[in-house]
Design goal:
With about 300 residues, the protein is mainly β. About 5% of the residues lie in helices and about 35% in strands. It has two helices and 20 strands. The strands form five sheets. Strands 5-4-7-11-12-3-6 form a seven-stranded mixed beta sheet. The chain starts with 5 loop residues before the first strand and ends in an 8-residue tail after the last strand.
């Protein structure tokens, strides 16, 4: 999903505007041990190593600077041979400001950090016998005929961190590993009382939603043919005209592909798997019937991206 912000709109004969705003999310990250420490033996063989990470969050225009991500942060550890996985939950990290410190066995490790500003991450899967390139990090769940909403996951990773002979200090910047899709509904010359009279006809749905993320930040099993749900994400519309509002926003969070060149201005490593939008509104001339799109699915032709 391309790293971009897009706006797609469709205007009906009744001047009702529906827009789709795609806020991309990606993971900008850096990691290093200081040049002065490279190759320097900090501890004797057989002793543990210390990993110290400074964790920051890359904010987009849709983020709040005060969002608390450290209190929900978890750290996951992998090795290339699939023989070692370790999990440090929020209760194990005890951040000092934006710094976490953990003790590790000597070795070469891959690290993934996961948090969320808007919900818990308890559904994130602890790795067992997997690497970052093949293990599943998160899978959306189904509740009856609809997908359950997912948290706005924040993700950062460090790979091939050599802690065989040295302690390591590094920095990770967390950014969304999901796409946020805002559907903006603007009301012009429309009888908003119909929303009260026919609430069952007032909803938006996203179909063909990819549901599974890998630990390396990509879609599972691959970016072009990901696992997609057979049921939609469903959001009702509850417009409050009494407060003088002229527009409403329905928000969806979906897994996003983070390509190798996600940080570039024009990334090419993007998915060809597209979402579909279904809109249902009360028909003003035929009470009890659905209006707009008439139950059809609309292709979103702008790649949501990872931001």
């Amino acid at each position: 999903m391309k790293q971009n912000t897009g706006y797609v709109s469709v205007r009906t004969a009744m001047q009702m505007l529906v827009g789709i705003v795609l806020f991309s999310a990606g993971s900008i990250l850096t990691a290093c041990s200081s040049d002065d420490d490279k190759g320097k033996k900090i501890k004797e063989d057989g002793e543990g190593r210390t990993l110290e990470l400074r964790v920051t969050r890359a904010l987009t225009r849709a983020d709040a600077a005060g969002d608390d991500v450290m209190s929900k942060l978890s750290l996951f550890v992998f090795d290339q041979d699939q023989l070692y996985n370790k999990y440090f939950g929020t209760q194990d990290l005890s951040p000092d400001g934006n710094v976490i410190t953990v003790e590790m066995d000597p070795g070469i490790w891959d690290f993934a950090l996961v948090s969320s500003a808007d919900g818990d991450i308890s559904a994130v899967m602890e790795p067992t016998g997997s690497t970052m390139t093949d293990g599943i990090m998160y899978e959306m769940s189904v509740n009856g005929q609809y997908l359950n909403a997912m948290p706005e996951l924040l993700y950062g990773s460090l790979t091939e961190v050599d802690m065989q002979e040295t302690d390591v200090e590094g920095e990770v910047t967390l950014v969304r590993n999901v796409a946020r899709v805002d559907v903006i509904l603007q009301y012009e010359d429309f009888d908003t009382d119909l929303f009260t009279q026919y609430p069952d006809l007032c909803f938006f749905e996203l179909w063909d939603v990819p549901i599974t993320l890998k630990w390396d930040g990509g879609l599972y099993p691959d970016k072009d043919q990901p696992d997609v749900a057979t049921v939609p994400l469903h959001q009702t519309i509850s417009f409050d005209a009494a407060n003088g509002l002229t527009a409403d926003t329905v928000r969806f969070i979906v897994p996003a592909h983070r390509g190798e060149d996600f940080a570039e201005a024009d990334p090419q490593d993007i998915t060809t798997s597209l979402l579909k939008l279904k809109a249902s509104l009360p028909h003003p001339d035929n009470p009890g019937e659905s209006f707009f799109c008439r139950g059809k699915r609309i292709g979103i032709d702008r790649d949501p991206g990872c931001s």
